[in-house]
From TrEMBL:
Keywords: Golgi apparatus, GTP-binding, Hydrolase, Lipoprotein, Magnesium, Membrane, Metal-binding, Nucleotide-binding, Prenylation, Protein transport, Transport. It is found in: Golgi apparatus membrane. The keyword Membrane applies. It comes from Drosophila ananassae (Fruit fly). GO terms for biological process: protein transport. PANTHER family: RAS-RELATED PROTEIN RAB. This is Ras-related protein Rab-36. InterPro entries: P-loop_NTPase, Rab, Small_GTP-bd, Small_GTPase. The gene is Dana\GF24974. Belongs to the small GTPase superfamily. Rab family. The keyword GTP-binding applies.
Amino acid sequence: MPHVLRQNMLLPVPPSVVLHDPRTHIRHLPPAYSPAQTPLSRERDFAPTVRYHLDSPRKPKFRPCKVIFVGDCSVGKTAIVNRFCFDRFQSNYKATIGVDFELENFTVLGHNYSLEMWDTAGQERFKCIAGAYYRNASVVVVTYDMTKRDTLESARKWLSSALNYNVNQKPLVFLVGTKADLLSKEEFMRMERLAGVAAAELQAEYWSVSARSGFKITELFQRIAGLAFETAVKKEMENLKDTKIEETTQPPVKSQSFDLRNFFSSRFTPQKSGCSC
Ligand SMILES: Nc1nc2c(ncn2[C@@H]2O[C@H](COP(=O)(O)OP(=O)(O)OP(=O)(O)O)[C@@H](O)[C@H]2O)c(=O)[nH]1
């Protein structure tokens, strides 16, 4: 039985109490970093049609959502994944070799939903290996270092490379500035302005974060999970609608006329009887 710590005493939790991890438990659509500027949903909550669809007794199962992290080497891709998944930060740099993988389970509107996080290597020599993992991404997180402007300029190159592998997928795109803790207030605001322009060009939703301090890390991942989940539900609704349309446009099975007289005449030879009718 799980326990909770109350005033230095370990008390057993009654079985009816379910403890939710507030980091991964989503009941409303998490807001964008700048709601007025996002090209993605500006709504304050999940669409009513999505909630209605999920209210049905049928419990749909959702495939894990593939999220890929791309960007120059050392911009902080591994650091943001590790901060969210393990709440840890390492200041020594260890280059990712090829790709790293983490899975995080969420509960969104009461449904299990997982993010598969593919943290790809930024070093040029691993690009071929990392590229092999870009396919079938539902979300692309393009990461740049807020202290290095050239890493923002590389963002376009990283995104187009990721989109080339996902032509039919139409992934949600996020542009994420890392290491916000290293900038002064003025530098931070200047960089955000530049990045805001780049994000608009890339049709990406913009976020500034810091893996060191944890600034906006949870909010970013919740937003990714919430939006990806809503997109998955809408896709499922579309698929169901298409199936229904297909069913109604199928030619109806021709009704067969059934002549009782033929039926009886093939089985019974009329008997001569004395009956007059
Ligand atoms: N101050 C500060 N340093 C950070 C932050 N995020 C990452 N770093 C440091 O930046 C360096 C690179 O971080 P990584 O997360 O390994 O970078 P990466 O993008 O995964 O690098 P590759 O694996 O080469 O693609 C490490 O030394 C981190 O400690 C941050 O938010 N603040």
